[in-house]
Structures are given as structure tokens and as C-alpha cells.
Amino acid sequence: MTGSSKYGSMTREVMSLNTQHHIGEAKVNTEVQAGPLYRVVGSELSISCNVSGFLSESITKEIQFRVKKPANPTEINIISTGDPKFSYSVYKSRVRSDEITLKHENPNSVFFKIQRLEKDDEGEYDCSVVNHESNYDGTYSVKTTVKVIDNSLSVSSPASPPRLSYNEGDALTLTCQASSNTIQHTHLSFAWYLHKDGEDRKPIISLGRDFTLSPGSGFEGRYQDGHIRLDKMGEATYKLNMAQLKLSDQGRIYCQAQEWIQDPDQSWYSISEKAAKETTLNVKARSLWHIDRMCVTVVVSLCLFFASGRSPARHVVSGGENFCTGGDSARGQELSLSCNVDTQNLKKAWLRGNVELVRIGPTGIQSVGPQYSGKVKEGELRASRIGDRDYHLILQPVRTEDQGQYICRAWLQDRGPDAQIDITSAAIFTKVISLSQEGVVEKAGEFMSRKVKATRPAADTFILELDEVRPSDAGVYECAVSEWESNSKTNSQSQTANVTVVPSESFVKVSLISRKNNVPVGENVELMCRVKGPHVPITLTWSLQRDASTLDNILTLYYDGAISWSGDQRRYQLKVENQENEVFHYLLINGVSQREVGIYQCRVSVFLDNVYKKLPQSNPVAISVQNPTSKLDLTTTPALTGNINTDIKINCSVNSKPSAPTHYAVTWLLKQQEESTMIMKSDRDALVTFGPNVQPSHSQRISMKRTQGPSFELNIRQARISTMVVEWLQDSHGDWYHLSPVSKTTELTVIEPANDLHLEKKEQRLTAREGDEVELKCNIISGASGPSFFYKVSWLYTGHSSSVRSPLVELDHTGLLSYPGNQELRGLQGRLHFSRPTQSRFYLGIRRAHEEDNGTYQCKVEQYQLDQEGHWQQKASDSAGPISLTVNVAGRTGLNLTRSQNFTIPCHITKQSSNESEFQVTWFWQKESQTEQRPIFTIYRNATLQDRLGKGDKLRFGHPLPKQFSLTVSKTSPEDSGLYFCEVEEWLLSLSLGWRKVAVEKSGHLTVNFYDEGLVKAISEPECKYAGARSQEEISLAKICGLSNTLLTPNPLQTIEAQRSEEKKREKTACTDILM
């Protein structure tokens, strides 16, 4: 409210609503499992929802679940605990079949479940509780997001035959491959299982999602002895090693992998589980050989097998017989040789040709040959004793130079090596394909399913072609050619070739390109994913990251041509363009909207041997969307005045005509100084809500409505404002987006008629020396009578360089004195002294005035009165005229001049950072009635001069010494009055940074006042004295005598009251001393 005089004049002020509303914590609280929750197609979805804060915790609450899908913003009812007809038709059948359930765990908690997720189940799920109480207080609805992704987990054991048969004590090796193509951050857990008929399966050994290795129940001892191992080979291969099979190991063995994802609540959830085909293992009991000490017979089993998981070729020989084991080794893989002797206390040695690799004693102590000690240190050669009879030799990785014959040599401990038994292994080649004399081509059994052929383009040329090569195909290939005559072989020759297979994914490079990154809403955007390299089966996924925590699939194009959509299919189009060495995948975004804003990437994985091998993702490309510029034009009444307790209507009309169907969101704001408080708003669907700080009593007095035009009307009844309108448009997909807001302000003044509170309005100017005591006066000249009136007094301060009025001190109408918190004014507030000598006088004293106290001070008085109910009512308010205070610092100069007198502004540098410094000097001018400091003239460090105000004919620059600068102003006039000072910038040259500014300092002020010569009369009295004159210029100023009744520029050291008393004494012409 504002006060006015009895004549109807008043001070305009924006109406203030009481916005202090103490809101406690919400009583009812609904919580749901935090999202986004990533689940795969076909898996189970489970969401918990809990409610608390109702008056009765024991009554079972009615809870409902809804969903809002990405392609359709409309909420769809799914299921309710209290209404069997709640479900929409799209979910009704799944609810009736219990595929979708909602069950109470307790009266205040439910579990929502979908047994088998479908791709279309992705969306934003809402859990809401039905309120049967009379009041609403709290949160009754909460949402979480569910993302449904493809099940890309792949588990296979391609090298394991359906049946295996081993003897007790033999070694078993099986391999399994497990990988996933999801772009989300997931972990895999892996396990090998043994399943016996009539029994539950039991794990042999497992690798957890946290990479913890654990043996299964009953296998702990064998794991600790090193007889059971699980090795991860590369990115996706898991190998099971069982050194000594037991009869209890017989059964069906298979591998299984689980894919885990971490939900936002930090818990891990299994989103997928797959198992490979079973391998039936048959373990036969071992037959022991008896040993005659005089005639030693040893049974030796030599096994050669590979990391690819092929079954070992196994041979058993007795006493001194030599044999060759079948098998092929690929360079870079693992070669494992096993020597089994049914006799104890033997010494054994492994040899390659005639060179001893390693010797193992009966107790397991090893000695390594000098040529192979380096391989042992690097872990490439390992020999171990497994039990009493088994001895293993492992080479990893196998190199080309490792080809040759390997010998397992054994002898009794009490006899020398002369009594040894040698078993040799000669490296042979596995048959791939043959070409007979008649031209018949025959594939070997292992390559029957492979694309392999042999051709003879010339009489002396034979070519082997093998398509879709794998890393396991690497190794040495031999071409053996035989000549035949009369059905008999006359000559044979062979040549070998070393073949290296490099994974094809290492040659595939992925990059993403977009010709337009920032587009207007509604335009099309084309993204191009370039896949460069050999043509291999790939799976490509387009992804969009809208924020730092959410990464969404748009679609996945699989290696077999299938497409799986995760985003809204209507928004996108695909195009694939094949070229010789690269493939371009195009993603077209139709009619881009704010939904498509984010960072796009294409991700490629190569699918070979049933394994997904992920390549580095493409570079990110950010797409931003620009909304059209708003052309909204509003009209409102700039100012309104109304009396207290009357109704006020404020209209805001839209003048512009929209080019498309438009909705408007309207917000009414109350502006007080620099802050805005929302009163009420209407969204684009015309839903009206009040601001959070509007009390219920105020909401009953305020309303708004829309009238024809359109025009928006705010009604304030019993009146005890800025309008902001936001224009909403629909894009081609039906999504609403808003343009920039447009606002108009109406200044509302509420008055109480015939109130006569008035403060002295005359503007005052005070000048004081630094350290003096200053007293500011605020006087009520009317409206202070009556003991029932109480006053709230506020002193406000505005600095010279600021336009913000800040409260210094307040005396409340109840007599409470307070200092509003302001860190910048803390020093000034500590030197203030507030006094009230009479009921209508309020004085503010400043002790030890500082230069920083310069500025404008203003007193504001509010009049209060108690009503009949004992409540304080503000009746009026008024502000006094501003008081401008100037504090002069000792050493600063003041000049009083007449028209056309020249004056000089010196600028002397007394200290500098370096003798190499260069200076830039700028002189400034500030009028006494203004706060703006305007530059006059600048001399730059390169000696360039600049006239900043266009007064070059009046300015003269001087630079008599390196550290002395001056600026002389000529042809002066009273308009040149004010404060003058200079600012110096110090610059230094740096070899690395160039010129850099190292310091900025300002000089003191020079105050210049002008007297109009037409107001000065000459003096002839010989007794005129020149008090305080210090120079010829000052003497000329001191001769100004014979002043008329017109008051000239005041003495800088006199207060306003002293000037008034001096005026009364000037009845005769006298000589006035003007002190500088």
C-alpha cells in the first residue's frame, strides 16, 4: 500500500502481497523403484511401489498402474488393486490371464509384474494411490521409466561333440563361447554345470559378475589342488580344465551365462540367461598294469589338443613302442601334452627332438634346460605333475619354431637313463581336402561343413581355397603331390605354407557424419554411418543419449537383415548403400522435434563363430533443434490506480495472429524491486494453479479468465503486476513445444484516500572530509500527529557506481532496531548511529566518514495503526528526498572557477612494477548529479591518443616526464563542473604471453565548480582580505565579493544548515573568502 496526501497526491509503488507461507513437509509420500530399468524382451518385469503417511496405515490402499508410451503421450490404464474394470482393452487380456499382476505385499506396498515383456511395453510407468481422505497433502503419484531391449546374449559350445568317453584319471578340456551385443553397461556371469539323471544340476566351477571364481559344492578340494580350472580366453571364450576325471564326473556337462545390469538403486538384476547344448560324458574305470621290477612295462598316454576345444586324439602304447599322435596346432594357441604312466617313483623328462626341455622327479621337483629357461620365466612353457602318474607339458602360445617331435622319457629312480623308455610324438598334418587323379574332390570329415575347394588351373599348379576363415584356421598347411604310373606311386613331393589369420574386425572402421547439426523444428536430419573394411556379417545399432545417465537404442540392424525397433518407428527411415570397400548406413529423422535432441552414435559388432565382437563405437554427433522465433505481441495497461478494498481488473490481450494452431500458457507475476513472485498461472491446457507462496486467503480473492481476442483477465477482489505469456505450437508428430516467453508489466498502485503523511522532499547535498561525523536528517512535515500512529523507518543507500537501493538500518513500528544483512555494507553499518529526537524526526549519524560512504541516502517512513482486532495495519508510506553525500579525502583538490578559465588534471605515477613497463592513461569525468563515470581522453601504451568525448578543441595533453602526465581543459563552462580523475593501466611484455596487463590504479578526485560571472559584482573596498589564498589562481577566486541575494556554489566544508544561517547574515555587501 502507499499513502497519499489529503489532496489526492500519492507515491506510486507496486502492490505487495503477503507471500510468507510456512509449508511443512508433505504428509503422504509415494515411492517407486527408480528408473530407468533396462529389461530384455521375454524377461520378467517387477516394480515395487510403497505408500506412507495416510492417517490409517492398516487400511489396504487402492493402487493403480498406468503407462505412457514413447510413440503416444496419452496415459493408458493397465491394472488396479480395487477396480477390475480399470484396464484398457490393449492390456485387458494380459491382465485376465495373470500375465500382468498387481499384488499387495502389505496394506501400503504392492508389486507390479509382467511375466513376459514385449517390445511395446517400453514406456513411463505411473504408480498412483487413490485418496479416500478429505484432504490432499503430499505425493500421490510417482513415475519410473522402463526400457525394453533385445536379448542379444549368445552362448554356444561349437567344438564340443554331443558325447565324450574317457578313462578314469584322464584329462578333460571343454570350451564355451558367451557374448552380448547390448550397448548398455552389463556384466556376464558364467558357470559350468554337471547334471546327473534323477538329480539336480550342480555347478562345477563358476565366474561371478564381479569376476570372482568359485568352485561348486563337492569340487572344492579338486579346485584347491589345481585339478579343476576355468580360464577365460580372450573376450568371449571360457575353457574348463579337469585334470583327473573321476567316475562321479559322469553325466551331462554344459555351460551357462547370465547377463546382469545395475539398476539406479545400485542393485544388480539378471536380464538374460542362456545355456549351450549339453555334452554327455562317460567315464570308464581304469585297469591297472602290474609292474615286474626286472621287466618294466609302462603304459603311456600322450594327448595333443588345442584351445579351440577339439577332442584330443588319444593313443595308448606299452613298453618302448613309439607312436605319433594326431592333431593340428594353430600358431598362437595352446598345446598341451599329457604323459600318463601307471608306475610310481619314476623320473620323467620332456624333450623336443634331442633337446631336453624339462625334467621332473618323483616328488615333482623340476629342472629346466638352459635353452628354455626364458620361456619358463615368461610363462610360455609349463610342466606339472598331476597326481602320482600324470605329467603335463603346456606350450602357450604355440609358435612356428615349436614344430617338431616331442618325447616323454621315463625311467626308474634307482636305475640310470640308459633304462629309459621313449615315447615320441611327430607333428603331422590334418587332412583338409584331396584331389584324385580322376579329378574327384573329397573333403575331410572335419571340413565337410566348410566352404573349401581344391582346383588345378594348370598342370603344375594346385590351389586350396577356404572361405570364411577363422582364427583357429591359422597354422602350417602342406600341399603333398604324388606321381603315379600303372597304379603305383613313383614320386611324392610336398611344400608347406604358414597361414596367419587376423581377426577381420581389426580392419573394420566406423565413423558418423551429419551435414546439419543445428536445425529448425520440423526439418529432416540425415545421419550417415560409414563402415569401412572387408564385408563381414555385422550388427549395427543406432543409439541416442538424451542426458548423461540415459542411453537409448533407436534400432538394431542384425547381420541376417532383421531390424529391431526400440524408438518410434514413424520418426525414422533406414537406407543402406554398398560400395566396394565400405558400406554407408543412413538414418533419416523425419520432422525433427525436441524429442530427437541429443548425442547420436552408431555401434557395430562383428558376428563370427556365434560370438559378438564389439568394435569401438563411432564418434558422437550432437543434434540440436531450434524453435521458431516468437512473434507474439501483447497489450496491457501500463499503470493502474485503485483504492483499498475495491476490485481491480488487469487485462492482457494478444494482438498478433498465429500462423498455426496455438495454445497459450499465461503466468501472472508480482514484481517487487528485482524479484518476481508467481501469483497464478494457466498452462497450455487451461489448467489454473496458484503460486507456491500464495496463502489460501489470498487465493480466494484472486481469479483469472480468458476472454475473446484472446484476452486474459486477472481479477483482484477487495484489493488489499507483470504478465508472461508463452506460445505453444505442435510439431508434425503431435508434440507440443513452446516459443520464448513474452511479458508485459502493469504497475498497480493501491491507495488509501485522504492520508496526509508527508516527508520533506527537498534534495540535499552534503560534503564532508574523511573522518568527520556526518548527520543525515529525515523529517515528517505532516501526518505525524496522534498517539495511535506508529512508524517504521528505513534508511536506504545507493552507491555512486550502483543503481540498487540497499537497506542500511530499519526501526520497526514496534520499536525493534535491525540492520539487514549485506556483506558489502557491513563496514558502513558498523559506524551508523540512529536517533529520534522527536516523534517526527529521524536522524542517521555516520561516525568517521569514509570515501566509500559516498552515495545517495534516502529515508522511507511507513505509518502503522492497530485495528479493532489488534492487528497492525499499514495506513500510509512516504519517502524523503534523496541526500547526496560526498566525502573528500585529504590531499584531493577542489577548484572553484569562472567561465573560460583553464584547469589542469595532473596524473603522476609514484610506483611501478618494472622499469620495462608501458602505461595507458585515461581521464574520467563524473557530473555531481550522476553516477556515470565517462572517459574523456586516453593515451595508449603505443603513444596513440584518443579523444573519447569529441572535445579535442578544448583538451591539451602533456607528458613532461616519463612518469608524469597531464590533461588541460580550456574554453570551460559551467557544464564542465564535476569530479575528474585519471586511471593508469600498467602493461609488461612477456616472451610467452605477449603484452599482459599487470596492474590498474585510479588517482584521487579533482572537484571542479564554476561560478557564473554574471552573478558576481566587483568590489572596491580596500579592506577586502584574501583568507586562505595559496596561489595567484586562488587569489583571483578569493576576490569574488559583493554577492547578491542569489546563493552561489556552497562552501565545500559547510553543511546546508550553516549555509542557511550565512544567508541571513548577508544584508550588506561584504568580502567572502572562498576556501579551496
UniProtKB/TrEMBL annotation:
The keyword Transmembrane applies. The keyword Membrane applies. This is Ig-like domain-containing protein. Keywords: Disulfide bond, Immunoglobulin domain, Membrane, Repeat, Signal, Transmembrane, Transmembrane helix. Residues 42-145, 158-272, 312-424, 503-605, 753-863, 882-992 form the Ig-like domain. It is found in: Membrane. Pfam families: V-set (PF07686). SMART domains: IG, IGc2, IGv. It is a single-pass type I membrane protein. It comes from Dissostichus mawsoni (Antarctic cod). GO terms for cellular component: membrane.
